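Data card: per-record layout.
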Amino acid sequence: MTVIDGARSSRSNHRFLDCAVAAAVFAYNLPVQGFAVPDSAVSWIAYALPAGLCLPYVFHRRRPLSMFSVIVATAYLQLVLGVELLVADVMLVPALHAVARSRPPSNSVPAAVAVAVWTITMTMPSMERYSMSFGDVGLLVLIVAIAWLTGMLARVRNEYVHSLQLRAEQVERDAAAAERTRIAREIHDIVSHSLSAIVLLSEGAAGTVRQDPDAAAAAMKTVRDTGREAMTEMRSMLTVLHSDDPVDRVPAPGVAQLDGLVERSRAVGIPVDYRVTGEPVELPPGLQLVIYRVIQESLTNVGKHAGPEVRAVRVHLNYGPATIELTVADDGRGTDSSSASGWGLMGMRERVLAQGGTFDAGPTADGFHVAVSLPAEAVR
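The structure for this 380-residue chain is written out next.
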C-alpha cells in the first residue's frame, strides 16, 4: 500500500466513524424524544431537532465552524421552542471540541461561551424536575470547559508538530543548498585549474612545435595528463552526486597530492618553490582539502594574472604548535581584488572560515599574496 492509498484509507475510516457516531446518537434519541417535545409542538420538530444536532457532525473535519454553527443554532432553536433536554444535545460537546481543535481562540472562545450559556439556560429551569443541584449544573459547564480545553491542547500540539515538520524541511533545503554550493566550488576549482593549465600548455606547444617538436610533444602529454586527472575528479564528484552510500565516496585530494600539484604547475611554466616546515601531523580530510584547494586556486590565479615576468612563487606550509600557517606569494604584476573575485577568492575564504581559520589575500609591493591560518585544535 502506498502513502497516498494509506491516507485515502484513513480518511475513509474517519468518515465512516463520523457517520456512525452521528447516526447512533440520532437513532438512540428517537425512542425518548417524545418525552421532551411538548404536545403543542408539531410532529416534525421531534425529528428535525435531533437531525440538526446530529447530522452536521459528519462535516466536523472539513467544515468545523459551519458544522458547529448549525448544531448550536439548532440547540438555541430547541430552547426557543421550549423543548426540554434531548439525548442529541450531547453532540454540542464534540462539536465544540472540533472547533477548538481546528480554529484559533478568536473562534473557539465565543463558541465555548455560547455552549456554556445554552447549558445554564437550558438546565436551570429543569433542576427541580430532574432533581439536579447547582453542582450538577456546574459539572455540565465543567464538561463544556474540558471539551474546549482538550481541543485547544490538541490544536497547540498539532501546530507544534507542523512547525517541527516545516523546520525539518527547511533544514533539508538548507543542507541541499549548502551541498550545491560545495559542489559548485569543487567544480570551479577542478575546471578552473585544469583549463588554465591546458591553455598555458597548449599555447606553449603551439609556439614551439616547429622549433622544438620534442618540447611541444611533452607539453601536449602534460595536457593529456591534466585532462585525465580533471576527468577523474569530475567522475568522483558525479559518483558522490548519484550515491548516498559513504563507501562510494572517492577520497578528496589532500596534502599527499600537493607534490603532484606543484609539479604540474612547474610543467606549465610557474616557478613554484614549495616548502614544508614544522612537524607534519595527520590532518582530517576536510582540512586537507581546504589546504589543497587554496594552493591550487592560488597557483591558478598566478597563471592567469601574474604575467610572464613572474620569477618565483613561494608556497610555504608550516605546522606550528597552535596553528597551521599557509602562504602563497608571487613576484608577478599581481591583480586587484575585483579581477580575482567571484568563486576564486570568495571560495577560498569560505573554505577557510568554515574550518575556523583566518584568510587574507591582496596585492603586495612586488606581487600578490594569500595567507591562511588554521587553528591546530581543529585538526589534532
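Known properties of this structure: Residues 97 and 146 are 9 Å apart (CA to CA). The radius of gyration is 39 Å.

See the next section for split statistics.
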